[in-house]
Amino acid sequence: MDLNRFTEKMQEALQSAQSRAIRRSHQQLDVEHLLAALLEQESGLAGAILAKAGASAELLGQRLEQELDRMPKVNRPDRCAAGPDLRHRPAQPSPHTGGRRSQEAQGRICFG
Q1: According to the model, what pLDDT value does residue 78 have?
Q2: pLDDT value at 11 more than 50
Q3: Element (H, E) at 22
Q4: Would you say 78 and 22 are in contact if contact means Cβ atoms under 8 Å apart?
Q5: CA quadruple 56, 31, 8, 103: dihedral positive or negative?
Q6: CA distance linking residue 111 with residue 29, whole number of Å
Q7: Which CATH architecture has domain 3-83?
Q8: What is the DSSP string of 6-21?
Q9: How far apart (Å, rounded) are the C-alpha atoms in residues 111 and 94?
Q10: In angstroms, rounded to a whole number, what is the distance separating the alpha carbons of residues 10 and 64?
Q11: Residue 84's pLDDT is what?
Q12: CA angle 17-49-101, nearest 5°?
């Protein structure tokens, strides 16, 4: 994964999410870690989007903490890998689309 392809805020969120996973002794970085990190960002978009949609960022944050508490822990993690929900192998070009990848696959992030 090339972090330079992401915005500064996203790079910060990914680093914060990884630190959160390591602090909690989680073996892998999952969507919950990333969403919690995005919600904690000052002047970040995640909280603003939720507020505009009428959702409570605070309630979601509490629910995320509960989910993170339930995740399995390992002894002394010094690093963690991206979990299956964050990792994606790019789709192979489809012969039905003239060799192009699907629009769905083009928009996904790839964590090698």
Answers
A1: 67
A2: yes
A3: helix 8-23
A4: yes
A5: negative
A6: 11
A7: Orthogonal Bundle (1.10)
A8: S-HHHHHHHHHHHHHH
A9: 21
A10: 19
A11: 75
A12: 70
pLDDT at residue number 25: 92
Residue with tokens 């602090």: 23
Q: CA separation (Å) from 91 to 1, 51, 65, 73?
A: 16, 34, 32, 32
Q: Per-residue pLDDT averaged across 14-25, rounded? A: 93
What is the residue extent of each domain of the chain? Answer: 3-83
Residue with tokens 């192979």: 92
Q: Which residues pair with 56 in a beta bridge?
A: none
Question: What are the tokens at 9?
Answer: 């805020």
Token pair recorded at residue 80:
């963690």
Weakest mean pLDDT among 8-22, 28-42, 89-103:
89-103
